[in-house]
Amino acid sequence: MSGQISEQPLPQADMQAGVQSASRVLSRHRTSLSLVLFAVAMVALAIVEGLMLRSNTADHAAEMRIILAAGARWAAFVPAAHAIAVCFSAMVAVPVIAILLGVILAVTRSVGQMLRGLAMAALPMAVIGLIKTIVDRPRPSTARGVLMPDPSFPSGHTACSVVVVSLALFMLQVIDARIKGSRRLAGLSAGDSRTPAIAADSAIPQSPVVWRGVRAVLTVVLIIVPFVVAFSRVVYGVHYPTDVGTSLVLTPVLTWCVYRLCEPMR
After folding, report:
1. 152 Cβ neighbours under 8 A, 6+ residues apart
2. Which pLDDT score, from 0 to 100, does residue 198 have?
3. Closest Cα partner for 101 from 122, 72, 131, 130?
4. Alpha carbon distances (Å) from 117 to 61, 79, 217, 220
5. Read out DSSP for 166-217?
6. pLDDT tens, 184-234?
7. How many CB atoms lie within 10 A of CB 31?
């Protein structure tokens, strides 16, 4: 009799767990749909903006004045702008992205997280390429701009820098999670008299303050990088300010949406 009484609450517990699980799945689907709609709306706005800019001669003249003034004012920066262009070209950026993905895989030991990073890199760049094709805005009529074979809007180099920075920030995030997990595990083991304390991992900073400082500095430096790249593209005379400005706004949005959409279920 006692055994039968103890089994009665189990169906209710299973039902509650099922309801909670279904609620989480439904909430996840709503969030995913919202993210997709938001990303699509931003892409549509970018396309409309690009088509308007392509046909507006007044905006073209105003932006050309900015480009020429920036090139004259920052002429000494042109060699650096050329170096930046090489650094964020596909020839260099693709290996860098591969290295970042390799680090994410090594730290998380999760193919899913590595694929999440790959999607964060590939999907935004594919969308930027699609917008370039649709808008087909000519390059600025400068000595270097007329030599560029692909359309101007939006800036691919600026978008690439945002993607690389986003992956680097993702890498810092997973490293931070690994460090916290290792310290927590070491603390639990040291407090358990039946389990020997785990030896300190030489690859993990022993001072939380030092790691937080290093991560903060790297984060600030990384965030600055896309703005430097955007500025260099205007000074170099191969992009309009609105080209780089659109990439600075749209690419982080797309990367963040992919990051959230690929977030593992909890």
Report:
1. 132, 137, 138, 139, 140, 145, 238, 239, 240, 243
2. 40
3. 122
4. 40, 32, 22, 20
5. HHHHHHHHHHHHHHHHHHHHHHHHHH-TTSPPPPPPTTS-S-HHHHHHHHHH
6. 665 555 555 454 444 444 444 556 678 788 889 999 999 999 999 999 999
7. 13
Average pLDDT of 1-20?
Answer: 54
Query: Where is mean pLDDT largest: 19-23, 26-30, 216-220?
Result: 216-220
E strand or H helix at 109: none
For residue 15, give both structure tokens. 């039902």
How far apart, in whole angstroms, are the C-alpha atoms of residue 84 and residue 162?
Answer: 13
Give the chain's end-to-end CA distance (angstroms, integer): 38
Which letter does DSSP use for residue 146 in this model? Answer: G
Distance CA 201, CA 199 (A): 6
**Tokens representing 14?**
């299973």
Q: Whose CA is closest to 152, among 60, 253, 256, 40?
A: 60
Secondary structure of residue 139 in the 3-state scheme: coil
pLDDT of residue 190: 52
Query: What's CA 161's distance to the chain center, in Å?
Result: 9
- Rounded-to-integer distance, Cα 209 and Cα 68, Å: 46
Sorted by where each begins, the domain ranges of the chain are: 18-261
- With beta carbons less than 8 A apart as the criterion, state whether 190 and 197 touch: yes
| Residue 25 or 119, more confident | 119
Residues 6+ apart with CB under 8 A from 29: none
